[in-house]
Design a protein that fits this description.
Blueprint: H1 5-11, E1 15-24, E2 32-41, H2 47-59, E3 64-72
Antiparallel strand pairs: 1-2, 1-3
């Protein structure tokens, strides 16, 4: 069984990144529209998001107003905690 590409990326340090992109509507320049983008990306450089935003600025008509980013690594080192006692159930 082969691991999915998303799982492999997570093992390489990628985390789930969500960006809310506010942009000015091309046909109604006084109104803002919201677009939600989500992909796996590397914190704190966000190369995948930067590539997308560069594409947006180069290709699309709606100028960007604000980008709000949230990021979470889904796979991280296990947290170990010492315990004071051990109880066995028979």
């Amino acid at each position: 069984m082969k691991a999915s590409s998303q799982f492999r990326r997570q093992l390489e340090g990628y985390g789930l990144t969500t960006a809310e992109i506010l942009y000015w509507m091309p046909d109604h320049p006084s109104l803002l529209q919201s677009y939600v983008w989500q992909d796996y990306d590397l914190f704190p450089e966000f190369p995948t998001l930067r590539t997308f935003l560069d594409f947006w600025a180069r290709t699309l008509d709606g100028p960007l107003f604000r980008v709000t980013v949230g990021h979470n690594r889904l796979i991280r080192p296990a947290e170990l905690k010492a315990i004071d006692a051990e109880f066995r159930l028979s």
